[in-house]
């Protein structure tokens, strides 16, 4: 029997439909301990979410429109809302009756980028539309839409590959969220380990065993791949490309680019036939990861 034939959607119970809350600049909501599961997504403004799931370290993630957050039952969280402008977010509480064929909730990701998975954005809008109606049919439709959304949210995201380990999903999600918020930038091994919830040494061993490089090098290879694509597909100067990759100076970018690609950026741009901009990430088996992360970046 194929894996598709054995998939079973989760079953959920929703007490009310999707609701919308508005917050004044600088407002704080929490700390609170969740008695159920909650989905939240920002419509306007921004926030920093501090949360601690059971038996996990305290984490902080930036939230903005375009990100979908899932908080598990028992999580303690606190929202620090945008200090400059009012913020609005949609939210939906639910109980998990049966996870179906999803992994245990402890392995579920906390944040997904809606721009990477547009179908999630469509389902969020559908849930928001259903929330304006209180009849039984809307309630049932909310449960059905939420079950499908959860299945898409939890299963391996686009680009990391079917069956990707939970730590890799967490690493890729954390980088995607960070880059979507700040632009492509350097991320240290310590920051990655904190985001994944493991020690620096353990994460280094995991990444090295799977990809033959360290966590920080993994991130840099993807940054440089972005630069290589920009050199081929834009009129941006080397200095502009360097900034778009998160390098402080074109000299540092050129030095690192030459180390990885074997030639400086200018020669890479002029060489015919054109070298593969994804060559180094492909060699390390990182092409699916790079494609996933670079969907949140812009060229030029």
List keywords for this structure.
disordered N terminus, 6-stranded antiparallel beta sheet, transcription, sequence-specific DNA binding, single chain, alpha+beta, 12 helices, 300 residues, AraC_XylS_family_regulators, 4-stranded antiparallel beta sheet, 43% helix, Arc Repressor Mutant, subunit A, Jelly Rolls
What is the total tally of β strands? Answer: 10
What is the count of helical runs?
Answer: 12
> Taking all residues together, what is the mean pLDDT?
89
Q: pLDDT below 50 for ≥5 consecutive residues: which ranges? A: 1-5
- Which outline best applies? elongated
Give me the CATH superfamily of the largest domain: Regulatory protein AraC
Task: Give the percentage of residues in beta strands.
Answer: 15-25%
Largest sheet: 6 strands, antiparallel
Description:
It is built from 12 helices and 10 strands. It is 43% helix and 20% strand. Strands 1, 2, 4, 7, 9 and 10 form a 6-stranded antiparallel beta sheet that branches. The longest helix has 19 residues, at 136-154. The protein has helices at residues 3-6, 118-130, 136-154, 166-182, 189-196, 200-211, 215-233, 238-244, 250-261, 265-270, 279-283, 287-294, and strands at residues 11-13, 19-23, 28-33, 37-44, 47-52, 59-63, 67-71, 76-81, 87-98, 111-113. By secondary structure, it is α+β, with helices and mostly antiparallel strands. The chain folds into 2 domains: 3-155, Regulatory protein AraC (Jelly Rolls), CATH 2.60.120.280; 169-294, Arc Repressor Mutant, subunit A. Helix 4 (166-182) packs parallel to helix 12 and helix 5 packs across helix 6. The chain is elongated. Pfam families: HTH_18. GO terms for molecular function: DNA-binding transcription factor activity; sequence-specific DNA binding. It comes from Desertihabitans brevis. This is AraC family transcriptional regulator.
């Amino acid at each position: 029997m194929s894996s598709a034939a054995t998939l079973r959607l989760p079953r959920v119970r929703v007490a009310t439909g999707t609701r919308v809350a508005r917050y004044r600049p600088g407002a704080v909501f929490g700390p609170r301990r969740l008695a159920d599961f909650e989905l939240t997504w920002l419509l306007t403004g921004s926030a920093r979410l501090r949360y601690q799931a059971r038996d996990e370290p305290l984490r902080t993630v930036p939230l903005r429109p375009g990100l979908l957050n899932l908080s598990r039952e028992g999580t303690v969280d606190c929202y620090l809302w945008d200090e400059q402008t009012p913020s609005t977010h949609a939210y939906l509480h639910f109980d998990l009756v049966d996870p179906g064929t999803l992994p245990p909730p402890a392995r579920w990701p906390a944040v997904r980028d809606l721009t990477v998975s547009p179908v999630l954005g469509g389902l969020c809008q559908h849930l928001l539309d259903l929330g304006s109606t209180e009849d039984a049919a809307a309630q049932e439709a909310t449960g059905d839409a939420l079950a499908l959304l959860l299945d898409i949210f939890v299963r391996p995201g686009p680009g990391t590959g079917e069956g990707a380990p939970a730590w890799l999903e967490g690493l890729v999600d954390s980088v995607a969220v960070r880059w979507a918020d700040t632009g492509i930038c350097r991320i240290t091994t310590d920051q990655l380990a904190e985001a994944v919830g493991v020690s620096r040494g353990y994460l280094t061993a995991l990444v090295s065993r799977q990809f033959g490089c360290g966590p920080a090098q993994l991130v840099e290879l993807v940054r440089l791949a972005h630069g290589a694509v920009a050199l081929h597909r834009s009129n941006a100067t080397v200095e502009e490309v360097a900034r778009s990759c998160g390098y402080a100076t074109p000299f540092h970018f050129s030095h690192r680019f030459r180390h990885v690609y074997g030639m400086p950026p200018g020669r890479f741009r002029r060489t015919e036939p054109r070298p593969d901009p994804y060559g180094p990430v492909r060699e390390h088996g990182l092409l699916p990861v790079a494609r996933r992360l670079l969907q949140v970046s812009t060229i030029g």
